[in-house]
Amino acid sequence: MPGPTEADVAIVGAGYTGLWTAYYLKRANPALRIVVLERELAGYGASGRNGGWVSGFFSGRPRVYERVGGHDGFIALQRAMFATVDEVGRVLAEQAIEADFVKAGHVQVALDRAQAAHLREELRSGRAQGLTEADRSELGPAELGLRLRVAGARAATFTPHVARVHPAKLVLGLAATVERLGVTIFEGTDVSEIRPGRAETPAGAVDARWVIRATEGYTASLRGLGRALVPMNSSMIVTEPLPASVWEEIGWEGREVLSDSAHVYAYLQRTEDGRIAIGGRGAPYRYGSRTDARGETAAATVASLRAKLTEMFPATATVRLDHAWSGVLGVPRDWCISVSADPSSGLAWAGGYVGEGVATANLAGRTLRDLILGEHSELTALPWVGRRPRSWEPEPLRWAAIQSVYSLYRRADRSERRSGRPSRLGRIVDVLSGRR
Ligand SMILES: Cc1cc2nc3c(=O)[nH]c(=O)nc-3n(C[C@H](O)[C@H](O)[C@H](O)COP(=O)(O)OP(=O)(O)OC[C@H]3O[C@@H](n4cnc5c(N)ncnc54)[C@H](O)[C@@H]3O)c2cc1C
Fold first, then answer.
1. What mean pLDDT is reported for the chain?
2. Nearest one of 194, 186, 207, 200 to 36, comparing CA atoms
3. To test the ligand 1 pocket, which listed residue (174, 185, 216, 354) has its Cβ within 8 A of the most ligand atoms?
């Protein structure tokens, strides 16, 4: 940024949240002067490094959202999220953003008896929350085999409400699109503090009627926000392009996204150029909410993702891994998402998506547009609007709690593998951690 700047809207963070918000605001009112302030490069954060699931599902316990909006409010949010997957596809087509978007749904497999029990339980609780057979259904062995062949799959479900995308192509395409519309993105601009009407940077202040915080897993670096969102790591590896013989064994012509059903689950996609990308949680958290600057990934995490890949697809045992990387998710204390804009202070923010922020950031961006333009809409009535999740505990409690949660989940997964039965430990940890 060249020096002190004035704008109508200053957005901190050039990931999906910041860029979708800029996009929808500028489309709604082209006269708005919008600047996006980004410490690194557009797409540097999770938006440029994720697993590329554009998922219609979202983080958090239904009852937290129901407390605000009742059951109807929760259903409205769920339906708005399903529609968001199509909205992302629509804008990509309209703006000619080439991001390998394919909406082919999500296949979830169970790799042992305990995972099969989790899957049944998820189906049952989904029905109780209002999901229909068309939203999520069981996939028999023959139907699964027609789609893709996962070694040891004992059960599977399918939902059509998920698409695949190339994450970096999406965020870079979006950045180019908003710039074309007249939004200015200042890269290399570190915001140290956000106050009503102002974002402070080393190059000077940005004065704006609205200041929007879209910093997700990096929020703790902003003054006064050290305990708002915890940065949790997620890691990925990607194979070389697989030979045709391997694809013949695996199938996967449809490009559905794929996951297993462990507590510490793995998520996969078949990329446009014929690789498999697989992700999962490695070392989940760094003391003091530190984030790792380079996305480096521990050898043990790479090895465990590789082992999971080979377990699911033995035909990949000898394929080369081309890349491994990590990034941070933003996790609020109650694991539920928030979208907020306060007209009196001019401060707004959205985030806390945990591991499901790709589609969610689009819906959050449209919701922020309506809130900032002062329009009451179906979106501003959604039950994630205006929530105030409580802060995380101070250190060292925070570190100890998060390390324990993940080591207990891993223990639950190991014990379920041995016994074949769902572990009570997993459920207890869900409740204690606030995830369910
Ligand atoms: C490995 C991995 C896999 C994932 N897989 C999926 C998936 O498949 N599907 C899914 O739905 N979600 C997934 N997620 C989560 C998803 O990527 C995120 O929720 C989403 O990208 C968040 O977007 P954002 O714009 O809010 O945050 P980010 O993309 O993290 O962007 C925040 C930006 O703010 C900038 N910033 C931060 N602080 C400052 C500051 N003080 N001053 C200036 N700039 C600042 C950062 O540099 C960054 O560019 C995954 C995440 C990771 C890490």
1. 93
2. 186
3. 216
Contacts of 231 (CB under 8 A, 6+ apart): 217, 218, 219, 220, 285, 286, 289, 290, 291, 328, 329, 330, 331
pLDDT band at 433 (very low <50, low <70, confident <90, very high): low
Q: How far is CA 23 from CA 11, 369, 408, in A?
A: 11, 9, 42
Residue 226 three-state SS: coil
Residue among 54, 198, 215 whose CB has most ligand 1 atoms within 8 A, to mutate: 215
Query: Where do the DSSP E strands lie in 149-274?
Result: 155-159, 162-164, 184-186, 193-195, 198-201, 204-213, 230-239, 257-259, 267-270
Inter-residue contact 348 to 211 (CB < 8 Å)? yes
Residue 405 pLDDT: 77
Q: For residue 400, what pLDDT band results from cuts at 50, 70 and 90?
A: confident
Confidence of residue 426 (pLDDT cuts 50, 70, 90): low
On whether the pTM is more than 0.85, the answer is yes
pLDDT tens column, 166-208: 999 999 999 999 999 999 999 999 999 999 999 999 999 999 9
What Å distances lie between residue 256 and 67, 157, 160, 161, 329, CA to CA?
A: 34, 12, 9, 10, 23
- Ligand 1-lining residues (CB < 6 angstroms): 12-18, 37-40, 44-47, 49-53, 55, 190-191, 214-218, 221-222, 234, 236, 267, 279, 327-329, 351, 353, 355-358, 361
